[in-house]
Amino acid sequence: MSGPEVGFYCSSCRRYNVYALPPAGDAGLCVECGHRDSPAPSASLLALGPIDRCPQCENLYFYTRKDFPQQLGCAAVTATIVLSSVAYALWDVPAAIAVLALASLADLALYHRLSEVTVCYRCHAELRGFAPNPEHGPFDMHRAEEYDTP
User: Fold this and answer.
1) How far apart, in whole angstroms, are the C-alpha atoms of residue 94 and residue 23?
2) What residue ranges do the domains of the chain occupy?
3) For residue 28, with 0-12 CB atoms within 10 Å meaning exposed, 13-18 middle and 19 or more buried, which class applies?
4) Angle at 139 between CA 29 and CA 132, to 5 degrees
5) How far apart are the first and last CA of the chain?
6) What pLDDT, in 10s, does the model give residues 41-71?
7) 75, exposed or middle or buried, with CB in 10 Å at 0-12, 13-18, 19+?
8) Which pTM does this prediction carry?
């Protein structure tokens, strides 16, 4: 998919789906269960301007993060810990430091290559390819707790 897109979780089955803007006839349709979450993009989103309102839940609050799967990031950290521990056990401190240095360089390279994604605090919709909005900063735990459901 090229251009601006919205990734959302189906309100019925929680499967991740994606549609491009402007929304076509199948926008908001879950490919798993067929449930339709009708998107309502704002005029700013349709004009490819800054994100002002979530097209899925109409929330006004967002955060930005690097567009990288969190599970893959956790797996990379775990693998680095295991590899550096094995290197330390087999070859001593210089090998463990070399593993940690290589992992740090790989992380730095990824950080500079990856783009940003804007995420809705309420429904966790991910908006890609839109103009940046300076009001959207990094993740704020206090704001996220306001939307946490019991």
Assistant:
1) 54
2) 5-64+116-147, 70-112
3) buried
4) 70
5) 35
6) 888 888 888 899 999 889 999 999 999 988 9
7) exposed
8) 0.80
